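Progress against Task 2.4 (sequence-to-structure conversion) is shown through the following example record, which the project officer requested during the mid-term review.
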Amino acid sequence: MTAPQLLPHVQALAAAIRALPDTPLTVYVGGAPAGPAPLPDTYVVLYPDPGNVDAASLADDRTELSGMVQATCVGSTPDGAIGTADRVAQAWDGPLVVAGRACWRPERLGGPPLQRDDDLVPPVWYLAVQYGIHSIPA
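Structure tokens generated for the chain above:
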């Protein structure tokens, strides 16, 4: 067996957010792009950690993947940032779909409180929510 890959998991998380009904959310990975184009009023930036690959048995078959992904939910108002965090929670309220993997539902782990970023013009509000991910071979 080959070691599990992180990228398909991050892509599945982003796809679940983009597939939300009504108004889809814009998703970036690793940071929002710098201008000159304006950013949407609300968006999500995913910051995955490298994850851990663990042995699933005493045979040392390193097939389990666990890690953390931070969803930084950004809005032009406090309600926008909080509402975006609620929509991410809605998108991730079920197991991920990753080919060849059985995935747990992302587990909300918390994060820092709502904050305002005055370094941007105009200022934005953001709420960073951390989620644990876990999968094994299907």
